[in-house]
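Example 3.2
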Amino acid sequence: MSEAGTITPETQIKELTEKLEEETDRLLKLYAAYEQQEAELRDTKAEVEVLEKEIVEREIEKESLEALLTEKDARIRDLEMKASKSSKQVEHLEPELQKMEEKFTREKDRLGKVFSIAEELDNDLRLAVVELQTRDEWYMSHMSLFEDLNKAIQRRYEMIEAAAEAERQSQHMGRAITERMEEMVEARAAEMTLEEASEIETVETESTESPEDAAEVEASEEEEWKWSEQVLVGVMQKNGITDRDAFIEFAKSYDMDGNNYLKGSELGAAAVDFVAKDKPEETATVEEAAEEATTAEEESSETEDKEPEVIWRNSSDSQESQ
């Protein structure tokens, strides 16, 4: 075989190396083109996204503009309605405006009069201030006279208070003497015997009857009876008597002096017989009943400084109560 027709390994390696270099160059070119295409694709996508965003923004702007236009149309319609209403109101309010102008004129005149009166009052006030200042100056110049007068008045009040205090002390001493005398009288009354008490009751009865002769005549005609309520209650309590009306009717027969007044001794004697009538086993003397009546009278005189109350009753009233 000739050298030209034979392919040596070196030649094959060289050819393969050249092919490899060509393919490598081609692959590099393809990769560069791919990268370029990919970059262009990314740019295109970015542009698409930007355009989409712009489209969305434009849509939003469009919608907002449409809303603004709608709102403006509504406002324009409202303004037109208000303008028409205002024009109508102006037509109706023109007479009222004239009336208000007339009122304003009248009030303005009135305010002018008030202002003139206020000026007069201000002038009077200034005059009064001047007069007060003059009076104060006069008072300051004569203050010593007023101080002396004040001292004299104070002295007068002190003298009146001293005299009133002396009078109060005198009245207090008089009351103390009166109370002492009443205590002595009460002590003497406690020491009195039954007969003296009966005599005093008789004197009191006569003294109470003397200024009322006409009343006594009518009382005797109507058979009115009287007694000391406290003495009656004391005698009934000590003798255990509960039937008041029956006891009073029973005691009327013990009126020894016939003056229609039941004394303590008479009530005591009647109480003894009244109790003995209901309870024969219990006996009591007339003297004990009289002592009880006297004790009841003394207790009533100690509890009250005034005379005992006298109750007037008819015999018919007691019978009706029975």
